[in-house]
Design a protein that fits this description.
10-stranded mixed beta sheet, 10 strands
Amino acid sequence: MGEWIVDSSWKGDPEEEDKRLTMIPSNVLTKYRMKRDTGQGLLGLWLTNQRIGILASQIGQLLNLRTLGLENNRIMVLPAEIGNLKRLERLMLSGNNLVDLPESVSEMKSLRFLTLSRNNFVTFPEQVINLRRLNHLSLGNNAISVIPSSIAHLRLLMELEIENNLFTDETLSSVPWNNCSKDMIFINISGNRGVTQVPPGMLSLPSLEGIKLGNTLINFT
């Protein structure tokens, strides 16, 4: 059925503040909800740059969604029902107040593109490891200090953005990069004050085209 888009591109104008949404419009949830997956329905829902603080559990009834854009809102918790979105391929959640993900995210097996930058994560969200089709993972600008060795299970990962966290040379060197996705082409590790060099194991990735370290983009092509 296409997409439903609201993007206020708010620039701080107080008069525009009141026009931004604080929740997903009920008419959208009612109109496009589905009791079972028929392969029809709303494909994309974009509600960026709003004031949404609570994501209604009814979001899990939009069973045909392929894209869900909720960047730059005020969401602190995702409902468990979001795991019902089995067809979702792109989930954009950067610029919110998330500290964790519900376990049900592990069931979103179609996800290929996930952005979680500019949230409040202090640990790597382990639920991501079960998203085996993931190509792009963005976790920049959080407070994460350790990447689990299980990241090697993301065999199709091509882009990893972990800039501006709390990683160090030691913690990044402990990641088994040589066992990670052979399709990895880009990794951003800039802005981690404890990182002064590219982890040696990272250089073993056969398809790697670039690494960003500090203000330097190191090209391998």
